[in-house]
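Justification of computing resources. Each target in the renewal requires a structure prediction run like the one illustrated here; the chain below, 96 residues long, is used simply to show the kind of job we budget for.
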Amino acid sequence: MHAVIRTYSGKGAKELFDLLEVRKADIETLMRPINGFVSYSLVRTDAGGVSVTVCRDKAGAEESVERARDWIGRNGSDIGASAPHVAEGPVILHLK
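Resulting structure tokens:
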């Protein structure tokens, strides 16, 4: 499995997570069809928020980054949120 973590902070991050919370159904529709999808989480933080995507392989994780960037560009560009810090790598333990 492979995971990607997107950390949103700074200008517009809190407002972006307000939008994501309101549009949760859209986000689910966006992420579930990714080939190899395992899980997706949105976590609100004091600075904005974090998204964590786990897929069966790196290709799925990379697709999630592209989909997230495109969705934010179409639906939240007026918020002006800073680009997220993106970290990715192989999953060494995944508990459910």
